[in-house]
Amino acid sequence: MQTRTTADVIAREIRAEMGRQLKTGSELGKVLHITQRSASFKMRGERAFSWDEAATACIWLGTTLPDLMINAGLGSQKSKAA
Q1: Do residues 62 and 14 make contact, with C-beta atoms less than 8 angstroms apart?
Q2: Are the C-beta atoms of residues 38 and 47 closer than 8 Å to each other?
Q3: pLDDT category, 16, cuts 50, 70, 90?
Q4: Which H helix or E strand runs over 17?
Q5: Sorting pLDDT into bands at 50, 70 and 90, what band is 79?
């Protein structure tokens, strides 16, 4: 069984959100000012997104990095119950 890194999980969640919104790797490359090939490497988890790239991708996708991480199972929402 392959161990998933945080970078892998973030890449997977960005890719999933892009799929839900029908956005392409080419569009992501333009947003991040990288080639489509580099965007593809990042989306497949072969290269890690920098924090700045992940945050920029989140803004483009209409979400936040903390929300993306929660959706990916990397964090939990704090209970509002006092």
Answers
A1: no
A2: yes
A3: very high
A4: helix 6-20
A5: very low
Count structural domains, the chain: 1
56: CB partners within 8 A, 6+ apart: 31, 32
In a domain, 59, yes or no: yes
In a domain, 67, yes or no: yes
CB within 8 A of 1, min separation 6: which ones? Answer: none
* Per-residue confidence (pLDDT) for residue 74, from 0 to 100: 77
Report the b/e string of 20-59 with b at 16+ CB within 10 A. Answer: eeebebeebbebbebeeebbbbbbebebbbeeebbebbbe
